[in-house]
Amino acid sequence: FGLLPTILSSGYNIDPSTNNIVLCRLRLYFAYVFSSWQSSYIILAAIDRTFITSPNANTRRFSTRRLITISMVGISVFWLLFMSHGLIFSQIIQFAPGYFVCYCQPGLYSTLIAYQSISILGVIPPLVMTIFGFLTVKNIRRVQRPAQHSRAVDTGVIAVGQLHALHSKDQQLIRMLLVDIISFTLCKFPSEIMTIYSQITQYNAKSVEQQIIEQSVLQLTFLWYFVDNGISCYTNIVVSKTFRAELKRIFSNAYAFYFH
């Protein structure tokens, strides 16, 4: 409903959703839902990392598996219900002879969808992610100060090793969070710019060629929109030594299980 249909549509002109209204509505509905889930889960992860790195013990208590599970279920159900309008107001639109696009209903609804996309995906998530990212960095720096003092005073080998391990994992956690935020913003930004442009020029007279060009650019930005969905694993491999070690352990265990 996201990257694969866009690749098939843009690269191979294969798009069943332009011939079937049910597929069209399901595609847009789940595209809305999955996009909202992604941004919400990244925000939830940023909040959890802020809690877990807090020097305040009472704040750290909010970082529990039970609370995260409840939050994820609540967020999932909320977006499933909130985006249900995509099952009703999506339709197949003809932009030119023989050129059909599965898109939201023109008029007031498309305007509302544009502002929804700009606010929910283009403005609010990066802003919230940035705020909690800075709070997490601030917490880490506050934790590091007493840790550095302890290393200067305590010469015990065990204490030094524990402090160093904690410091290393926290730094990797921060890098993974910042990379997620940066990749999310860079991948979503072009699509939101195109959405703003479409809203500004929606009442301008456009030739058939211009409409086709704009739709092609929109498809390209929509393709780029989903790139960060598939690169998180690779960016984590690059920035996190612990992630690489855990991934290697998983593959080693799988190899030993299936081939020995």
UniProtKB/TrEMBL annotation:
Keyword Glycosyltransferase: no
Membrane topology (UniProt): Multi-pass membrane protein
Keywords: Cell membrane, G-protein coupled receptor, Membrane, Receptor, Transducer, Transmembrane, Transmembrane helix
GO CC annotations, alphabetized: plasma membrane
Gene3D superfamilies given in the database record: Rhodopsin 7-helix transmembrane proteins
Listed GO MF terms: G protein-coupled receptor activity
All copies of domain G-protein coupled receptors family 1 profile, residue ranges: 1-239
Protein name per its UniProtKB record: G-protein coupled receptors family 1 profile domain-containing protein
A UniProt-annotated Pfam family: 7tm_1
Subcellular location: Cell membrane
Top-rank lineage group of the source organism: Eukaryota
The organism of origin for this protein: Adineta steineri
Transmembrane segments: 29-47, 67-93, 113-135
CDD domains reported in the protein's UniProt record: 7tm_classA_rhodopsin-like
